């Protein structure tokens, strides 16, 4: 969503996330140029927030090649909390920081 992009892009860049990874996450650059690990995790998060029922055994197996169970739980919590806050801010027209 627009709130998410406006609010979190600068935070990610300030935290040292490479610009090409930020662009790929924001769907402004091809994922194919990223390492397989990042592509797999982005695919999992996209499905988790957009269509969790589409996460099949094959995707779970690929994800668990790169992260431990506890790391995946943490990723799910962060993705879910971020989605909740973004929907809240969008619904109530709360401007992103610095807007």
Helix content: 55-70%
The biggest sheet, with number of strands, parallel, antiparallel or mixed sense and barrel status, is: none
What order do the helices and strands follow?
A: HHHHH
Q: Which shape, going by the Cα principal axes?
A: globular
- End-to-end separation in angstroms reads 15 Å
Query: Rg to the nearest angstrom?
Result: 14 Å
Strand content: under 5%
Tell me the number of structural domains. Answer: 1
List the helices and strands and how they pair.
Layout: H1 2-14, H2 19-25, H3 36-50, H4 57-64, H5 69-91
Helix pairs in contact: 3-4
Can you give me a brief rundown of this structure?
The chain contains five helices and no strands.
Features:
single chain, 99 residues, mainly alpha, 67% helix
Outline the structure in words.
- This protein has helices at 2-14, 19-25, 36-50, 57-64, 69-91.
- It has 99 residues and is mostly helical.
- The chain has one domain.
- Helix 3 (36-50) packs across helix 4.
């Amino acid at each position: 969503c627009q709130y998410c992009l406006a609010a979190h892009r600068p935070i990610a860049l300030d935290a040292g996330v490479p610009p090409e990874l930020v662009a790929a996450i924001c769907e402004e650059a091809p994922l194919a140029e990223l390492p397989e690990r990042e592509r797999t995790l982005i695919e999992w998060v996209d499905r988790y927030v957009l269509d969790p029922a589409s996460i099949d055994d094959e995707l779970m197996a690929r994800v668990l090649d790169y992260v431990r169970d506890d790391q995946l739980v943490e990723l799910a919590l962060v993705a879910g909390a971020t989605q909740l806050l973004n929907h809240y801010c969008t619904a109530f027209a709360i401007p992103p920081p610095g807007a």
